[in-house]
Amino acid sequence: MVSISFLNPLSPEGKDIVRELGSFEGISEDIPELRSLVAHNPSQEIVDDQEIPSNYLELALKRMEWYIQKKHDREFNSRKYAFLSDYAITKYDVISFYLLCQAIGVKFGPNSRETRVMVEAQGDLVQERLGKLRTEDSRFIVEKSLQMLLKDDLVHWTFFQELLSTRKIRLTDLLLDSGELILDREDFLDRFGPRIKQRNPSSMYELLIGDELKELIMVKMIMQETEDYIKQVHEKARIMVEPNPILLELADEVAEVLAEPMQSYGYGSGRGGSGPMKAGPLNPLAFPPCVKKALEGIKSGGRNDAIVLFMTPFVSYARLYPDVFRMNISKRISDQDPQLEVTENEVLPLIYEAAQRCVPPLFDDQPQEKVNINAKLGFGMHSTLKMEHEGETTWYTPMSCEKIKLHLPHLCRPDEVCKKIGNPLSYYNRMIWEVSNLDKGGPDSGNSNASNNFAAESPRNTGTNGKSNVNTGANGKNNQSVPKSSNKNKSHDKKSGEA
Ligand code: SF4
């Protein structure tokens, strides 16, 4: 029988498991039963013996690795992590959950990327596990969990204040009657049955509530409890003399797992034209004409849209996640820039410079646009970028050329490269890629004397004060350059008969 603690380690059953373990003693010792359970799981794929978790700590890291790989690796193989959905591992899994929360709470605190990823991973794991259970088991366990989590039969919507304020749930997700949450079928039929005409009330219940809403509430409440627990650990850790070194070590290993996407998935694998783009310092010489124009400053109308809706997504994605369209995986800024250093020191300064060059300078008469810029980066309507606000809004992807032509026509001054792309970010990636291809003297360069095409345009500083952190070549020594796009592409066009 599946234990509630398999879905909610913070349940009383889960706490009992922790109590039984008692202390950290022997926490890193091998557990032959755990290895055996993983090795004998019929759905498990094991390529290398090293992939089998041998103890609580390794299991904890596997939990994080599962989430990170699932989210970032397009070739993710779920069979490598089949053991995570096997409820036979419950007692080990619960301990590994507590170890993770404590390690993250002690080392990183509640407002960290590590906490956010841990909470999201727990939510995803609960959903994954529910999906693997038989329908009747899943229903039974959701009902039982909700009874514990909701504590009362009558629940007023204000009970969800925390979930609503952290945007884990929206008020519109809930079905309310006189402010009370309706989840139970009988309750629904009693309250709404007589009012539903020309429809079957039972079908309406399935449509509006069914298993889906119950699961959603349960998952989000477990996520919130996980977050609250990390917060408690952090508070306690502040008054403790010395945190357990095992937790600090685990926290470092968690940070390594989280850093892996930036090293392995989608960045710098150097597979030529079909491979991922490498995120790196911005090269203004590769910017498309519309971005160059916006950087000169908007002198006519449309300053707000040009800076907030156009430049902010372009600059942030070009610097942090140039491959967004090819990868087709939604990310947050902190997935690419965990400490927000690049965002603070390179992305925002360039956007602010463009805003400053507007006539009149944008923030002189509309300082509130700084808040809107933060919102477009995914950090909600706040005046500073704070991890705790990330996710309140969406990190906007760059506008397509079609939209720019429609809403900001004065920025669009297409050149030859523009004929081959549909988005300014694709233009930028193409130009950057051409540079690296020429650098390698690769087959696509079409020019064995490729270096002749380098630095065809003089480097120029886009900064107003020469202090931009972007590699603008302000000192005339720009080490990034692009081929002269018009010449190179003209000759290409002639060959292909498109000119
Ligand atoms: S076609 Fe697209 S990339 Fe080229 S200038 Fe216009 S908006 Fe920019």
TrEMBL record:
Boundaries of every DNA primase large subunit C-terminal domain copy: 286-417
GO molecular function term, any single one: 4 iron, 4 sulfur cluster binding
GO cellular component: primosome complex
Cofactor: [4Fe-4S] cluster
Keyword line: 4Fe-4S, DNA replication, Iron, Iron-sulfur, Metal-binding, Primosome
BP GO terms, sorted: DNA replication, synthesis of primer
Stretch list, region Disordered: 443-499
Binding-site list for [4Fe-4S] cluster: C290, C401, C412, C418
Family (UniProt): Belongs to the eukaryotic-type primase large subunit family.
Description of how the protein assembles with itself and partners: Heterodimer of a small subunit (PriS) and a large subunit (PriL).
Protein name: DNA primase large subunit PriL
Origin species: Methanobacterium formicicum (strain DSM 3637 / PP1)
